[in-house]
Structure formats: C-alpha cells, structure tokens
Fold:
Amino acid sequence: MAVRSAEATWNGTLRAGNGTMRVSSGFFEGPYTFASRFEEEKGTNPEELIGAAHAGCYSMFLSALLSNAGFTPTRIHTTAKVHLGAGPTITKIELNTEAEVPGLDEATFAEKAAAAKAGCPVSKALASVDIELTARLLA
Structure:
C-alpha cells in the first residue's frame, strides 16, 4: 500500500510564531499560527486538516461499502467538525454525511454508514476520539 507524507515548519515561539504545513503531492500548502489554531484568524490548523482527511476517507469508504453491496452512489458529501478542548486535546469529531444512492433503502444505508464510520482508516487511527455520525439518505 501507499505511504503518504506531509511536513510542517514552525518559526518562533508558540504565541508569536508562525508556520507552514504542506503535503508532499504539492496540492496543499498553508500557513498556520497560534491564532489560526486557537482563535479565529485566517490560516489553517492541524485540526481542520484532520477533519478534511476524515471526511474524505469516510466518504470513500462508504462508497466502497455501498458499491460492494451492489449500489452505485451518485454523490456522498461529508463534513467533519473537529472539536479541540482543553489540554489541548481533540475531544470529538462530528461527521455529517448526505448520500444520493438510487435504489437504496434507509435500513441498508444506516448499516453501511455505521460500518464506514467504524471501518475507515482515519476513524481507526482516531479510535480514542468520540466520533459522532449523522447520516442522511437523500431521495
């Protein structure tokens, strides 16, 4: 299987410093600071990148489970809200997904959505975090 990499550089002190995070493919590079992580300043932060990875992984894994069960998803859209608490510690991730899957019933969708939450590699890597799932099958 593939090995993926990313890197970060931090300059200066925690509060006054700044840094850059980038992925090895070159498709993302972004600045981050204390304020972009713990306040509401522009810039990225590790938690939103974890959220993007989790939403992407979950959507792909759900698609695989549905496809393997004989259903062809038209669209799966997932958001991830990563909660950063005291410590700092990631305390919770809220996954919200909506899927358009012709011919799929609610019960099967709920089963596959829950299985995707448990089985996607990012969920497994974040096993110590409370992951809440809201899944909605669109008509």
In short: The first strand starts at residue 6 and ends at 11. The chain has a mean pLDDT of 96. Helices lie at 34-38, 46-68, 106-119, 121-125. The longest helix spans residues 46-68.
